[in-house]
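User: Could you go from structure to sequence for me? I need the amino acid at each position, not a summary. Structure tokens:
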């Protein structure tokens, strides 16, 4: 590889590496208001967090960007539907977010008194390091 090509390759790679170094992944969940069971929401969050496989550093979105995956759960905890509601700007990030929700299913049956189907939003964000 010529010296000029090497310099050009490094110039292209450094912003991506700097971006990856300047951020971290964050997962948040938001449940439909009919769910008041904190234990259920924590277990559902943990289940998705365990299946999440973060794409490579060059495929993370810009700091502050996120993918929002909407999941609809049936009374038995089965995934009725899932879709990316908001794209992060990284197709790999969005695909990994959707895959994490699908792989985590089925979830525990909904707690008694929870209206079904239950809508859950999973926010997979790339946030600035603190």
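Assistant: Here is the amino acid at each position, in order:
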């Amino acid at each position: 590889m010529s010296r000029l090509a090497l310099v050009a390759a490094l110039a292209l790679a450094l912003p991506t590496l700097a971006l990856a170094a300047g951020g971290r992944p964050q997962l948040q969940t938001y449940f439909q208001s009919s769910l008041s069971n904190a234990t259920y929401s924590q277990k559902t969050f943990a289940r998705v967090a365990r299946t999440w496989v973060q794409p490579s550093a060059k495929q993370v979105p810009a700091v502050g960007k996120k993918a929002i995956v909407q999941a609809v759960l049936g009374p038995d905890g089965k995934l009725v539907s899932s879709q990316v509601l908001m794209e992060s700007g990284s197709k790999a990030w969005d695909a990994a977010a959707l895959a994490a929700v699908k792989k985590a299913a089925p979830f525990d049956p909904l707690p008694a008194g929870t209206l079904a189907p239950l809508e859950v939003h999973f926010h997979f964000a790339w946030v600035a390091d603190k």
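One structural detail worth keeping in mind: Residues 3-21 form the longest helix (19 residues).
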